Amino acid sequence: MSEKIIDNNGKAFLVLLLPISFLIIFLVATWRILLSIIVLIIGFNIWQQYQWQHWCQQVNPVFHQMIRETQGKITPMDLAIKGNFSGTTAKRYLDTKATEFGASIQNSQEGGEVYYFITSSILGSILDSSEPVKELPAQPVTKTARSLLVAPEAQVVESEPETEVTPPENHQQVTRSLEQQLVFGSLIQSELAKRLNVYSSTVYKRRNDPEFPEWSRSKDPDGIAWTYSEKTKEFFPLEED
């Protein structure tokens, strides 16, 4: 009985020993070829990485220019059109830059991805809006300020009636400040955010929205609609018909 057990164990050991022996013989005979293949694969990967880094250095100026023009907002399609290369390559490049600079990636309503890179100007706007804006008294501005809002270049020809009720002192200060801001007929983002009593980042996100004039009208204490100019990066009051 014990001899059968020993015989069975010996056969099982031989079954395992034969494949291991063949594998050792194969490795001894072909180790040079296998080593050459491994070296070729590693060298090819290094060459590909070098080629990619060299290509990225050529695309970097285009990327930096688009970031300045769009204030940190960019899509793979925008970069592909600007750089004249494939969308897959553009997405790979933006993924690399997003990892490098810690950019946020959001899905757009059209189904694509939008990359947001934080620049110094955007960071300044966020810091300006870090504290809530105090709500101003809901009282109408004077006719002089109203005329400046509607037509900044027009000269005011109508004077205030003497019987008009004088606004509170703090509102007069806000009105004079607004008149000074509208000397050039426009407001910057942080100034408009304070007027609408919202965060500066909220104005930044909504400024290119087609419904921005109506939205700003609903927030403006005097019901004035505002529009954004991509050329000057400023906000102008929308003239009424």
Topology:
Elements: H1 2-70, E1 73-74, H2 76-83, H3 87-101, E2 104-107, E3 113-116, H4 120-128, H5 143-150, H6 169-181, H7 189-196, H8 200-206, H9 212-219, E4 226-229, E5 234-237
Antiparallel strand pairs: 1-3, 2-3, 4-5
Helix pairs in contact: 2-3, 7-8
- Biggest beta sheet summary: 3 strands, antiparallel
Give me the side-by-side strand order of the main sheet.
Answer: 1-3-2
CATH superfamily label of the largest domain: Winged helix-like DNA-binding domain superfamily/Winged helix DNA-binding domain
Helical stretch tally: 9
Distance N terminus to C terminus?
A: 110 Å
CATH class (first level) name of the largest domain: Mainly Alpha
The radius of gyration computed from the alpha-carbon positions, rounded to a whole number of angstroms, is: 34 Å
Residue-averaged pLDDT, rounded?
A: 75
Secondary-structure element series: HEHHEEHHHHHHEE
Q: Might you state the CATH topology name of the largest domain?
A: Arc Repressor Mutant, subunit A
Number of strands: 5
Q: How would the global form be characterised?
A: elongated
Structural class: mainly alpha
Name given to the CATH architecture of the largest domain:
Orthogonal Bundle
